[in-house]
Design brief:
Blueprint: H1 2-20, E1 24-28, E2 32-48, E3 55-72, E4 77-88, E5 93-104, E6 108-114, E7 134-135, E8 146-147, E9 161-167, E10 171-180, E11 193-194, E12 197-198, E13 206-217, E14 220-229, E15 236-239, E16 242-245, E17 250-260, E18 263-274, E19 277-288, E20 291-302, E21 313-326, E22 335-348, E23 361-371
Parallel strand pairs: 7-8
Antiparallel strand pairs: 1-2, 2-3, 2-23, 3-4, 4-5, 5-6, 6-9, 9-10, 10-13, 11-12, 13-14, 14-17, 15-16, 17-18, 18-19, 19-20, 20-21, 21-22, 22-23
């Protein structure tokens, strides 16, 4: 009876939050707060994946419910928790953020669980953005170009994550770590391939470290970061009796933002040094009064120093994207209709014209978005 009452109360509170258009604060005082909110996102997509006859039209989306709470002490310390279950239009249930945090207000903080750390490659208003290849906020797929974006150790891993941060006013420092099984970083995991060689089945738990230093002054903010894997031979391949450490990967990133009134401009640079390949990406984007425009250039250089028999040379990816937001549609606060499109090209300059199964891609999207 008691559990039934609690579930019914939760349902009523969520319904009230949706009707109020701005979430609901159940507790909000000097001692702490607890709220329920979230958003709904529904996409209608068109994609022409190889600029020939392979086109598709589909719909996807999800409902995110956020439960968030914090409690404060008299001396300025706090503890907090957040959970964001995702109910996808496919029928699957997933999780966005789920973490516990504690620290001192406007000072230091510790966060553990599932979350995203500092964004070192912000792309602005990216209603629809995909690439001829794969990116470091998705998976590494053998046989496709890699548009690295300084996100391999940013977060939302399945096995564990912890971060310490410190705010010194204009100076911000964080040190994050992802721990545990990272076999899913490569699309096919153990049994999959890297540069044509099968990944061994003796995987170890990894430890990825990602320190970030940020600084803001006036309308400008800047940040620099490194991410690297510290456990030797966490994932390996073997060729000619030699074991090669696939997690010997170190990435570097720089980002800068200028924001003033209705305009925001981001500039990003990321570089990855990995086994037999280096990946460099540069991006520039701007958002002005609901209109977003961006460009990302990615290049990968492939070698045959550690693993022989793979393609050798460069692969370049050029991507442009644009978006526009119609805010407060039908005079309903927090209800938006967004339009987005992208166009991406790939240029294979390696000595193997068939090594990378990628083509020029185009996509367009209409998104319905409501925040409650």
């Amino acid at each position: 009876m008691k559990n039934t009452f609690k579930l019914s109360l939760a349902a009523v509170l969520v319904s009230s939050a949706m009707a109020a258009n701005a979430g609901i604060s159940i507790v909000d005082s000097e001692e702490g707060n607890f709220s329920i909110g979230g958003n709904v996102e529904l996409n209608f997509n068109y994609q022409d994946r190889d600029m020939k006859d392979d086109s598709e039209f589909n719909q996807d989306g999800r409902v995110l419910i956020e439960f968030a709470g914090q409690k404060f002490s008299d001396n300025g310390h706090y503890v907090g928790v957040k959970a964001q279950p995702l109910f996808e239009s496919t029928g699957n249930v997933a999780m966005d953020d789920a973490y516990f945090e504690f620290g001192k207000v406007d000072g230091w903080g510790v966060k553990a669980g599932r979350f995203e750390a500092y964004d070192m490659f912000p792309v602005g208003l990216d209603v629809f953005l995909e690439y001829s290849g794969d990116t470091s906020n998705e998976l590494y797929v053998d046989g496709t170009s890699y548009v690295y974006q300084m996100k391999e150790a940013r977060g939302r891993g399945a096995d564990g994550q912890i971060m310490y941060s410190q705010d010194f006013g204009g100076l911000y420092v964080e040190v994050g770590a992802m721990i545990g099984d990272r076999t899913n970083f490569f699309a096919d995991g153990v049994g999959g391939t890297y540069h044509g060689q099968q990944i061994n089945d003796d995987a170890k738990d990894s430890f990825a470290l990602r320190p970030v230093v940020g600084y803001s002054v006036g309308d400008f903010s800047f940040a620099a970061a490194i991410e690297t894997q510290l456990v030797k031979d966490a994932l390996t391949v073997t060729q000619g009796g030699k074991t090669i450490d696939l997690m010997d990967r170190t990435g570097y990133g720089l980002t800068g933002t200028w924001a003033k009134e209705d305009i925001t401009v981001n500039a990003n640079l990321a570089y990855m040094d990995a086994v037999d390949e280096t990946n460099m990406s540069a991006g520039l984007n701007a958002v002005y009064k609901g209109f977003g425009l961006g460009y990302i250039y990615g290049t990968s250089e492939y070698e045959n120093k550690e693993i022989s028999g793979y393609a050798e040379g460069d692969v370049d990816v050029n991507t442009v994207y644009a978006s526009y937001e119609f805010a407060d549609v039908l005079s309903v606060q927090d209800f938006s209709v967004l339009l987005g499109t992208y166009y991406t090209t790939v240029d294979n300059k390696t000595n193997d014209a068939n090594a990378f199964d990628e083509h020029d891609d185009f996509g367009a999207r209409v998104r319905l978005f409501y925040e409650f």
